[in-house]
Amino acid sequence: MYTMDYKSLHELFREETITDKYITLSHIEKLIANNKSSVVGHSVENKIIYKIEIGNGKTKVFMWSQMHGNESTTTKALFDFINFLNSDESLALEFKEYFTFCMLPMVNPDGAEKYTRENANGVDLNRDSQALTQPESKVLRKVFEDFKPDYCYNLHDQRTIFGAGDKGNPATVSFLAPAYNENRDYNTTRLKAVEIIVAMNDVLQLYIPNQVGRFDDSFNINCIGDTFQNLGVPTILFEAGFYPNDYVREITRKYIFISLISGLKHIYENDIVSNKIEDYLNIPQNKVNFFDIVYKNVKINYDNLEKSINFAAQYIEKPNDGKIDFEAVIAQVDNLDNYFAHHSIDAQGKTFKSSQGSIPNIGDKANFYLGNDIEIVNGLIKTQ
Asked: Which of 106, 274, 311, 366 has the fewest CB atoms within 10 Å, i.e. the most exposed one?
């Protein structure tokens, strides 16, 4: 058994060349070239889809990232993990003897370039797992069928709107053991995924207590995780979420790395035969209950009447010259009783003033004044 300092391990193997949210194929091709890699197909716009293989063990683990082009955190964490595997760390050496890893670091390179969830044809690849209408979907399925994995890791990002339950904690990492049928039953396959998730959660609670969520398990056979679970391969959905003030997800990538290592360590050290349903269901379910910014006790003048309101803004992510800009836009006015904020501003009764109108309107940019002295620029108080 190993006693591990996971944070120090990540600092040692963090891939320093990829640090932003905007990660495209050009950012990772040199990293891919440093590994045993091959071309397994092409995207709609003829960009290469690469496969990396590491290890020569009997237990096969298939991992893929960025099937949604604007979800790059797990791609960064995957290359951190690859750096670890390529090291002489004792656990890395034992992993390579026990496991064979097959990894597709970027399934949707066109979406990555455009910074869109969908591929170049506007199709969500995570809803194309049965019809297989897109070239990227066909590549993913063929690699799965050729590799014949024992476990599948489906790596994604989730938005800042998710909380881990309803206690005001952000869902920094969320997991799901996808359903394999409409009844959402638990068979041996799904129970294996459940056990690994519980093991990863046990470790993450040491670092981010109460910030791990359980994703909704509504069954949709068109989703890749549900499909692979249905085909009898234990499959785990990873969702890289929000850590306070970490909008580029550089902290979250660390916790995805820790999840990867700790979950695989559990497989390596144990027979995956336990029934951990109770522990799994005790992980709080993801809730849509966060806004990026909430403004409280704001006075407005509406129809010649003074009124105190609360309203919220959400960041919209936009690619700009190789970076991602975060543009704060008003997302909701009042009806915020069941919501939390990543950042809260108390206007203390100051009056809302804006060139866009006398009241906050959904869709407006979050640029306004509170009274005469507090200027809000892109959602936050302007500092001198």
From this structure: 274
